[in-house]
């Protein structure tokens, strides 16, 4: 009974801590709510006028929110909660847009209402974040980044085109080497997805290195997986680095292990007995190759927003 009470108190403390650490949803005080105080008075007035003029022309409601931090909360979830509380957009049209900037966390998001998802798609919102806002934010220019981002959003909503992607976003002082462009996922989700992705393809990679026969089949079979799946966690540059490492290291490790006694024994057993045990897995040979198995299996204004939009970091 005493142990149960202690466990209950611990769970209650954890629950209370999570509630206290959750980011607050501020009151809607205007089209620009600058709680992080990163915008000048002139910029706030200019943005307010631009957003009002756009609403008068189209009835679309665009709001800007800056907060210092959201205490580790997912910016996607936070933006949805703010959007829901503020009820951006006209009821029945769901034509609201929320731009959230969290300077201390270096995160931002453009949350798009249901009614505008076909006009301002997730890809377009992501492009505005990457090519318009992020370069400005990296230089500490929040006034210019948010102003240019709002102009790009309004331009798309009123039938214009997106600004072209900059071919080079680096500063005049060039840095050489591999530049990895990270994905838009929060760090916690990157860790979870990374553990899942690299755990699975890593397991098959180890099996391919250790197994005679089928190992070289797995080598070629896993190349597209190493080329694509890491993009989710590491971005395109990181995925390319993983692919190059895999293509080079796998054959080297395979050739090194080929001369070990246990590898030769496993290869001999496959040829003579038709089966071998490698690292807890039982490998059996067929007429044209090998197969492996184990004793266990695994499985792996009344408006609203459905989570459409894009997030980014700088």
What features would you describe in this structure?
By secondary structure, the chain is an alpha/beta fold. It has helices spanning 2-21, 41-58, 75-86, 122-138, 142-157, 187-210, 214-221, 223-228, 231-257, 261-272, and strands at 32-34, 61-66, 96-102, 107-112, 275-278, 281-285, 290-293, 308-313. β6 and β7 (290-293) form a beta hairpin. The chain is elongated, with a radius of gyration of 26 Å.
Which descriptors apply to this entry?
alpha/beta; three-stranded antiparallel sheet; five-stranded mixed sheet; about 325 residues; 8 strands; about 15% strand; single chain
Write the layout of secondary structure elements.
Elements: H1 2-21, E1 32-34, H2 41-58, E2 61-66, H3 75-86, E3 96-102, E4 107-112, H4 122-138, H5 142-157, H6 187-210, H7 214-221, H8 223-228, H9 231-257, H10 261-272, E5 275-278, E6 281-285, E7 290-293, E8 308-313
Parallel strand pairs: 1-2, 2-3
Antiparallel strand pairs: 3-4, 4-8, 5-6, 6-7
Helix content: 40-55%
- Order of strands, widest sheet: 1-2-3-4-8
The residue ranges in which pLDDT falls below 50 over 5 or more consecutive positions are 166-182, 286-300
Give a short account of the largest sheet: 5 strands, mixed
Q: So what's the overall shape?
A: elongated
Rg for CA atoms: 26 Å
**Which class best fits the helix and strand makeup?**
alpha/beta
- Annotation, overall tally of beta strands: 8
The fraction of residues in strands falls at: 5-15%
* Continuous helix count: 10
Order of helices and strands: HEHEHEEHHHHHHHEEEE
Summarize model confidence as the mean pLDDT.
77
First and last CA, distance = 51 Å
């Amino acid at each position: 009974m005493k142990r149960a009470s202690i466990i209950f108190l611990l769970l209650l403390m954890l629950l209370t801590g999570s509630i206290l650490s959750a980011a607050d949803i501020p009151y809607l005080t205007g089209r620009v709510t600058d709680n992080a105080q990163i915008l000048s008075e002139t910029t706030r007035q200019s943005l307010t006028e631009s957003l009002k003029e756009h609403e008068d022309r189209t009835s679309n409601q665009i709001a800007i929110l800056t907060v210092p931090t959201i205490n580790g909360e997912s910016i996607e979830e936070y933006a949805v909660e703010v959007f829901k509380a503020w009820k951006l957009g006209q009821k029945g049209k769901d034509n609201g847009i929320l731009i959230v900037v969290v300077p201390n966390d270096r995160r931002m998001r453009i949350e798009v209402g249901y009614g505008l998802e076909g006009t301002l798609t997730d890809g377009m919102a992501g492009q505005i974040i990457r090519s318009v806002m992020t370069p400005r934010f990296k230089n500490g220019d929040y006034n210019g980044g948010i102003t240019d981002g709002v102009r790009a959003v309004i331009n798309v909503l009123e039938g214009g085109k997106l600004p072209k992607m900059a071919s080079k976003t680096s500063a005049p002082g060039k840095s050489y080497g591999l530049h990895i462009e990270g994905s838009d996922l929060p760090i916690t989700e990157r860790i979870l997805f990374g553990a899942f992705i690299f755990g699975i393809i890593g397991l098959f990679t180890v099996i391919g290195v250790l197994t005679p026969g089928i190992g070289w089949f797995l080598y070629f079979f896993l190349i597209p997986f190493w080329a694509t799946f890491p993009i989710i966690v590491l971005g395109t540059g990181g995925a390319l680095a993983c692919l190059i490492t895999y293509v080079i290291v796998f054959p080297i490790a395979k050739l090194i292990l080929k001369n070990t006694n246990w590898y030769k024994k496993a290869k001999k057993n496959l040829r003579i007995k038709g089966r071998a045990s490698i690292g807890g897995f039982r490998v059996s040979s067929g007429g044209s190759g090998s197969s492996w198995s184990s004793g266990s299996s695994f499985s792996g204004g009344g408006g609203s927003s459905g989570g459409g939009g894009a997030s980014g970091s700088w």
